[in-house]
């Protein structure tokens, strides 16, 4: 995965898609707020259709397929046109499938052992998940010593009040969050608030 591309994302909004058309509107709103990417999680029946729709209708935004847990889901998300892929955890089977397919893949890790498993297959950027529950900033600082060239996208428990602390760490390349795409905001069609929160997250 291109370090500079992920770094430019700053904050990756993690979206649960219930409707493809609504997700297209959400992607447009996030883009208006300055966000450069959207992670659509494979947690709902509408997810793959939402990925296709956003890729077709909002080509300016990078689309990640999230919550990839096995090679079958990876292949389906690739067929849907996702630009890159994110998992909540790692398995040898999934890592090897991503390598075989030659896709941009960000494996999920929560321990040093999982980082080492990824490094063995030449991955160097990982999603730390669940970031806060796994150890948060102290864990990231601890991992910096033995793995100086590894970069992380912490996700899980990040909020408007703490995400900037994560971004200040030298081994954090971007972070994931869902506060700007909370279900209630999307259900209510509160696009102005979503755009405001997105712009705030992208501000220095």
List keywords for this structure.
single chain; 204 residues; alpha/beta; TIM Barrel; 6-stranded parallel sheet; 3-stranded parallel sheet; globular
Please render the helix and strand layout as text.
Layout: H1 3-9, E1 11-15, H2 20-32, E2 37-41, H3 47-57, E3 62-66, H4 71-79, E4 84-86, H5 92-101, E5 105-106, E6 108-109, H6 112-120, E7 125-128, H7 131-134, H8 136-144, E8 151-152, H9 163-167, E9 175-177, H10 183-187, H11 191-202
Parallel strand pairs: 1-2, 1-9, 2-3, 3-4, 4-5, 6-7, 7-8
Helix pairs in contact: 2-3, 2-11
Q: Could you describe the largest sheet, including whether it forms a barrel? A: 6 strands, parallel
CATH class: Alpha Beta
* Inertia-based shape: globular
Helical element count?
A: 11
Radius of gyration: 16 Å
Number of domains: 1
Low-confidence stretches: none
**Which H/E pattern describes the elements?**
HEHEHEHEHEEHEHHEHEHH
User: Overall mean pLDDT score?
Assistant: 97
| Secondary structure: helix percent | 40-55%
E-strand count:
9
Kindly identify the CATH topology. Answer: TIM Barrel
Distance between the termini: 24 Å
Structural class: alpha/beta
Percent strand equals 15-25%
Query: What is the annotated CATH architecture?
Result: Alpha-Beta Barrel
Could you please describe the fold and organization of this structure?
With 204 residues, the chain is an alpha/beta fold. The chain has a single domain (3-202), classed as Aldolase class I (TIM Barrel, Alpha-Beta Barrel), CATH 3.20.20. The protein has eleven helices and nine strands. β4, α5 and β5 (105-106) form a beta-alpha-beta unit. α2 crosses α3. The longest helix is centred in the first third of the chain and has 13 residues, at 20-32. It is globular.
